[in-house]
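May I ask for an example protein's residues together with how it folds?

___
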Amino acid sequence: MNSIVAKFFIIFFLLLICGTTDKSATISRAKRMRMDEIVRSLYFDDFQVGQKFISKARTLTEADIVNFAGLSWDHNQLHTDSEYAGHTQYGKRIAHGLLGVVAHAGLTYQLTEDSILALLELNWKFHRPIFIGDTVHVEQTVQKLRESATGDRGVLTFAKKIKNQNDEVVQTGTTTILLKKKS
């Protein structure tokens, strides 16, 4: 019985992290993740107002939506019931709006991974639905910079746009973060 439970959790973990149980796909994704970690983290003093950064893209899958519904306890029929969603203004299931916010965080974290001290503020708007199979990326522009009184850190505000594969803006917002300065 314990081996069955252990196998279940391994499969569940693979599905949660990779969206698949194919071991070769898991290994390939792990290699890409390590390659991505080579990206240099930027510090407060590396940024200038008006600088623009574009993230890599990510396709949101049915597994992402199902896992997010389970994690958030949001099982609204727009996200979980194809028959119901097919009769709505969207014509099919849509991703949770907050899943877009979370995906944005994952797509942009490497830029400040080693220097971020805190997320201070998040303001967000939802313009269009994100559908299963949509591929999204984030475009972010440095909007404000303010050095802290201590001088060893600063506050940065990004203006952000999440766009789909058709270059349509699906979500916008701002994030304000506290960053270390270089030593």
Summary: The mean pLDDT is 83. The CA atoms of residues 117 and 178 lie 5 Å apart. The longest helix spans residues 2-18.
